[in-house]
Amino acid sequence: MLRRSATEVQVGTDPRWAVRLTDLPAAELDLLPDLDAVEPSLARLLAQAYLTRDDAEGQPVPPGPAAVDAQVWSLLRPFPDGAALVRARSERVVAVLGLGPTGLGVAMGLATAGVGTILLDDDGLVRPVDVGPTGYRWTDVGAARLGVAARLMRDVAPQVSTDSVRPPDVVVLVEADVADLGRGPALVAAGTPHLSLVVREADIVVGPLVVPGAGPCLRCLDLHRAEADPAWPTLAGQLRGSPPPDESAVTAVVASGLATAAVLAHLDGAGGGPAGTTYEVAAPDAIPRERTWAVHPDCGCTALPAVS
Question: Which listed CATH number (3.40.50.720, 3.40.50.360, 3.30.450.20, 3.40.50.300) goes with 92-303?
Fold first, then answer.
């Protein structure tokens, strides 16, 4: 709560919900920020404008980073039910395939945001170049990525599970150089939303988030690239199966943050941007470059019913 002038205060600083209260008598200004002492009408206005409450069930989000998400959502939604929205994440299942620095960053981000079950897959070992801000430490070098990632997630989110009897709500595919030709179509056929991250020579491509039947799929992007460069299928065939490139720590942090936000937006029902959007995060500046891809007419992926 900030004083703007002798007769005006501002509640909050974010333009999405900040409120200005004007023409306040000096006596009321002298009482701020003691809301209990302010006249009831002003107290109610301040409470409606900025303060949050638990939803009708009266169950707050446990202390931690997810509580911040709950507060923000309470301010953005018509009813202050951010806690209910965030708690719903505990019932969701997300699979993260590929646990280099970027994949680990996504898994850690989802765990701290309250996603209840995160399925992990990677048969590699932690390398010295993997050490960095997304989680791996020097003491982890040489250990199996899968085991280390599970331990690190539980360090920040003790309640997270790494096992599920039901299929995931979203699959995150972290791949090297080029997307696998088989994984995407199989997930489209199964109706499973999935997010692609491709770690390339000097950048990381985040997206698109594919919702089967509602926008371009990974095969669409492959067909577009082949139209732009007739040699693309030959190049892609050589890149598939190549050793994973090293990931810049800065690009891994930015890419994993964008990916985590995209998955959470989908789980929360908040959209997450136009269908077919990708972000290219290149070293050394790591400033995301946004691109939007269309459905390719030769793919046929949108003939499938959209996932609700």
Answer: 3.40.50.720
